């Protein structure tokens, strides 16, 4: 498992849109998420989750997707660029999906704690028909693999921009497998 990588792009959107435009840098706020992003906050901001219980803690403050997924779907005929799947940070070289729950991602002064997997929804097919199926996979035993990135909470804030290095601090063993948050 590769435990270091780089930031390829950073993105944010003040409105609840599937895609987030790339920007030069994002400011990440401790305990809140990305400044000026619709998902910033202490409590959940994802619309379907707010409808169920708006008092839930926001375990989805910052969303990360690996560039390798964009390359994988490109090989299947899809054209997807950084930010288009709703992520705030696009990474390269770091095995995001293999990280255990509680891993700390260090990007400069920023510390993000991995809370779980993103559960990709049907809105992804609104970008390109069939794209949702391309970001999901079934293991031989039938287990569903969700490849649409990971979710984190902010332990320490700061600025993040393309080219920044990412290092990881693994939690104490035994490791907990990532589940959907």
End-to-end separation: 22 Å
* Stretches with pLDDT under 50, minimum 5 residues: none
What is the C-alpha radius of gyration, as a whole number of Å? 15 Å
Helix share of residues? 10-25%
Classify the fold: give the CATH topology.
M1 Pyruvate Kinase, Domain 3
- Classify the secondary structure makeup into a structural class: mainly beta
Main-sheet strand order equals 1-6-5-11-8-7-13
**Major sheet: size, sense and barrel closure?**
7 strands, mixed, barrel
Oligomer: single chain
Secondary-structure element string:
EEEEHEHEEEHHEEEEE
- What is the average per-residue confidence, as pLDDT, rounded to a whole number? 95
Secondary-structure topology with pairs:
Elements: E1 4-11, E2 22-23, E3 25-29, E4 33-34, H1 47-52, E5 62-66, H2 67-75, E6 89-92, E7 104-107, E8 110-117, H3 124-127, H4 131-134, E9 136-138, E10 144-146, E11 150-156, E12 158-161, E13 165-169
